[in-house]
């Protein structure tokens, strides 16, 4: 199969997961044609720096490119950028594009990611979301012109932007209906520490407050955010960071399960010859024995590798230990595994600096480990996680 030059794989979505699938296919010796379809007009840059160095103005966007020119060459793909997929027919094995072309395939990889959720009334000028390079550049220039930001949503993205905006000298207020944001994702100790770090840097919080609406001026530019308790916040710039929705609307074939992303089996296969990877993919984790859809960078690459291997006929179930990180001010927080019993939290303070490690257990096994400025101390726990959960190394 690897040497069959007549095969064609169509990858829809030209970002982290899509591009990594193409690279992995070539690494594994795939000799057929690879067509990569992406609706952004250029190859998107890697997204993690968007809320950090690029928003801050500390990194040239070109330095966050997904592929170096050499790697771009090596992928040897046909790139269809600035074009959207608008339909998938699994019976005829065809992808329809919005430029009226139809691509036949032997295998198709759905890597269309997610897009930010919006709020009613959120179309006033000055209300931002953050997913693309253009979004980051627009928010950067808004923050350098108007040094006051209201962030709606105290998740990872909202808090990363709050940290960067403080570094840019903006006053920042973060609003979230949850009184204990990030508790379920980071556990009690790290979630509390993170809010303390932000408060110490001057970020104000309105927790437990919903959004009542936005007030704009005659020109249609946002001026105030009105909270559900009646408080009204001065808001020349607003970031809405309340989560994302999977890009599945183009998948109109009834064979596919597109409730909460693209439903796949443990091989990341959604149907015969149809695979999914990255933020859009929901698959059955064969060891944790649950359905997962993960919106984190490492998963996009690891799942892409698994999909490429399975296109090559290797038949390997995708069984990662989920991993993500977030950078806020000078702090790096990393989590491996899934914190599903925050009550089992055990904290190990390290001797040097402000680093610490937390462990979480479930059914007598290590289920997750969190490291706060303690990447090295985390290593043995990651091995323990694999061993105790019988997850093979990738
Ligand atoms: C600002 C920001 C900061 C982040 N920071 C971190 C971090 O610190 N740590 C971490 O672990 N993760 C982080 N992430 C998450 C990480 O970047 C994502 O998990 C990763 O980008 C997912 O890659 P993907 O290829 O699955 O999806 P995406 O990157 O969303 O790419 C999907 C692509 O498909 C295209 N597309 C959609 N529909 C169609 C269609 N119909 N036809 C053609 N193309 C289509 C889209 O335009 C897009 O280019 C961050 C994300 C953002 C936005």
Please describe the topology of this protein:
Layout: E1 8-12, H1 16-27, E2 33-38, H2 53-56, H3 69-75, E3 78-81, E4 85-89, E5 94-97, E6 102-104, E7 107-110, E8 114-116, E9 127-128, H4 133-145, E10 148-152, H5 156-167, E11 171-176, H6 183-200, E12 204-207, E13 211-216, E14 222-227, E15 232-234, E16 237-240, E17 244-246, E18 262-264, E19 269-271, E20 274-276, E21 281-285, E22 290-293, H7 297-311, E23 323-328, E24 331-337, E25 346-349, E26 356-362, E27 365-372, H8 375-388
Parallel strand pairs: 1-2, 1-7, 2-3, 7-20, 9-16, 10-11, 10-16, 11-12, 18-21
Antiparallel strand pairs: 4-5, 5-6, 8-17, 13-14, 14-15, 19-20, 21-22, 23-24, 24-27, 25-26, 26-27
Flavin-adenine dinucleotide binds at residues 12-18, 37-40, 44, 47-48, 50-51, 84-85, 111-114, 130-131, 157, 247, 250, 278-280, 295-298, 300, 324-326.
Cofactor: FAD
InterPro entries: FAD-oxidoreductase/Apoptosis, FAD/NAD-bd_sf, FAD/NAD-binding_dom, FAD/NAD-linked_Rdtase_dimer_sf, Reductase_C
Domain FAD/NAD(P)-binding: 8-304
